[in-house]
Each structure stands twice: as C-alpha cells, then as structure tokens.
Design a protein that fits this description.
147 residues, mainly alpha, 4 helices, elongated
C-alpha cells in the first residue's frame, strides 16, 4: 500500500509540473506574439500557478520523505540544495510577477495601447523567465532521479 501511495504522489508531482511548464510556455508565447492581449489570461494563470506550486511543494516534501535525504556533503545532497535554492528563487520571482499582474489589473484602462504593448512585453518577459526557471528545475529533478 505504501508503494502505491508513493507512486500516486510522484505521479501527481510530475503531472503538476507538466501543467505548470505547459501553461507558462503557452502564456509566454501568447504575450510575446500578441495572441494574448488582455489581463484575463494572466489572472487565471496566477491562480493556477500558486495552487499548482502548493501541490508541488506538498508532493515534493512527500517524495523527499519517501526517499530519505542525504546531507549536502554528497553529490545528490548538493544537487538537491541547488534545486531548493532555485525553487526559492522561483517563489520570490513569481511573487514579484504576481504583484505586477495585480497592479496592472488594478490600473487597467489607464493609458493607451502603448501602455498595453509595454505591459504585454513585460508579461512576456516575466513568463519567459518563469518558464526557463521551471525547465531548469525539471533538469535538476532529472539529475536527482537518474544521477
């Protein structure tokens, strides 16, 4: 039974990462190409992102508990430490990104299409950086899983 629960937790973790990476890249592309021109997509994404991040943290802690965590003196432990530091960076950077979305949403309608184009550029860059960091975390996860 414990193996089945562990498998379910790992599966949920991987599926959540897949949703986050896919939705982030889609939103980045949408803002970069101007296929997305309003704040509605960003608002929905931010809710999805923070909910999914919560699932990732919970399942990640569950995975670590199932595996047992060696100290940072081992290669695996050092890689895990780097991954956790990147996760902290993702959280801090994403908090800033979310604040930009909230602030822009509060002031939508102020300014002209110029502001809208500038905001789309900012959001495109923000979601691009988020996608890059998420992909770096996927690579670190692969290193941890397969050495």
């Amino acid at each position: 039974m414990a193996q089945l629960v562990s498998l379910a937790v790992r599966t949920l973790h991987v599926l959540t990462v897949t949703v986050l990476v896919g939705s982030t890249i889609t939103l980045w592309h949408g803002y970069r190409t101007a296929a997305v021109t309003d704040m509605a997509a960003a608002r929905r994404y931010e809710w999805l992102f923070w909910g999914a991040l919560g699932v990732l943290v919970l399942t990640g802690v569950g995975n670590l508990g199932a595996l047992g965590v060696p100290g940072p003196t081992t290669g695996w432990g050092r890689t895990l430490l780097v991954k956790l530091l990147v996760v902290v960076g993702l959280v801090v950077g994403s908090a800033v990104r979310t604040l930009v979305v909230v602030r822009a949403d509060e002031h939508s309608g102020i300014g002209a299409a110029e502001t809208s184009a500038a905001l789309r550029g900012t959001l495109g860059r923000a979601y691009g950086v988020t996608a890059g960091v998420l992909l770096a975390l996927v690579v670190l996860a692969e290193v941890l899983a397969h050495g």
